[in-house]
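Regression test case RT-17, inverse folding.

Input:
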């Protein structure tokens, strides 16, 4: 029997090579043998300040990237989070069953709160940032997925999702929620910032030099990779602690070419950093150029793109609505 897979990407910015290698490329691999529900998390995106136009543009652009990267709309259910209202409804129920202390303990909340304060000292911290994990729990629990492919930085949120599911199962009805399992693809690497390779490559990074965006052209890729931090040894070896810059470049190369790190190391044995960087520039460009062309095609026909998302939302809604009804009944909200 097919396994159900649920995941998403937040529409906080332009997609990065990290989002592709760490998430979207895995969705593409998983779609042949599983039932996929892949969404664009535009409600999670408003937990930090974001301009109206940017949010709408990001949402459509991400949909176009999904399909351009190879997610097949005839096989996978791709939808926008806000189009399935059940996410926010279940989120509220979960919120009422969560504790302030457990939400305040989330490291992502603490990190994002600190970053938001650094950017603007006078800003108040939005409550949405605090309750983000309850929305994420709802995103997951509505679909009863067998696998949830998310990065290791989401492990804590997934653990909270399990806690909430178990709490409600114990309080209202055993088996109300299926306990989700995190899925991490084999040989998958965390892609790091080009200028500070101890930090994750993130779409909301303020410095574009840290990030390869999926939309970057050859010149931009060349400039960014040439300036990527390495070290003075000129020895191509994978060692995250001592050589984080070179290790990151090796991880990027290995991920794109489907090689193991050992294979990548032996390919570059006796070569210098200049060769490594030139090779990586070509590898990234060869990966991205055809995807960029397809993405532009999807974006140029927005009506068809929106139709695909609506179809995906309709499919998602059937499952989400039935689960929500079951929950409402179990907790007494459904009074009829
Ligand atoms: N650098 C990365 N390396 C590997 N995987 C990554 N992912 C993100 N960055 C990397 C994976 O992409 C998926 C989507 O993540 P998200 O958009 O929901 O949130 P995120 O993990 O916080 O991604 P970003 O790019 O860092 O976004 P911002 O800047 O908004 O916080 C996840 O599966 C994630 O693991």
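Golden output:
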């Amino acid at each position: 029997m097919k396994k159900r897979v649920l995941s998403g990407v937040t529409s906080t910015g332009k997609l990065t090579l990290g989002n592709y290698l760490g998430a979207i490329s895995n969705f593409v691999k998983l779609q042949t043998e599983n039932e996929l529900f892949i969404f664009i998390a535009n409600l999670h995106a408003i937990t930090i300040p974001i301009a109206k136009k940017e949010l709408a543009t990001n949402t459509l652009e991400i949909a176009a990237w999904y399909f351009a990267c190879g997610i097949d709309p005839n096989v996978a259910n791709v939808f926008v989070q806000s189009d399935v209202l059940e996410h926010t409804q279940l989120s509220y129920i979960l919120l009422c069953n969560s504790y302030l202390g457990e939400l305040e303990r989330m490291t992502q909340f603490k990190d994002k709160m600190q970053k938001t304060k650094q950017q603007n000292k006078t800003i108040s911290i939005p409550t949405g940032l605090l309750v983000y994990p309850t929305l994420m729990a709802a995103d997951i629990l509505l679909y009863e997925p067998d696998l949830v492919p998310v990065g290791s930085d989401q492990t804590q949120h997934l653990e909270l999702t399990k806690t909430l599911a178990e709490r409600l199962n114990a309080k209202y009805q055993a088996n109300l929620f299926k306990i989700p399992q995190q899925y991490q693809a084999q040989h998958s690497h965390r892609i790091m910032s080009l200028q500070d390779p101890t930090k994750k490559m993130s779409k909301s990074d303020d410095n574009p030099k840290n990030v390869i965006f999926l939309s970057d052209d050859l010149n931009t890729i060349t400039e960014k990779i040439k300036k990527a931090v390495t070290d003075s040894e000129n020895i191509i070896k994978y060692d995250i602690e001592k050589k984080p810059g070179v290790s990151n470049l090796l991880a990027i190369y290995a991920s794109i070419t489907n090689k193991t790190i050992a294979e990548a190391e032996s390919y570059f044995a006796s070569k210098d950093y200049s060769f490594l960087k030139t090779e990586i520039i070509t590898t990234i460009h060869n990966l991205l150029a055809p995807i960029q062309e397809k993405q532009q095609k999807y974006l140029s026909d927005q009506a068809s793109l929106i139709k695909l998302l609506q179809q995906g939302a309709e499919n998602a809604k059937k499952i989400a609505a039935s689960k929500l009804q079951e929950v409402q009944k179990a907790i007494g909200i459904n009074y009829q």
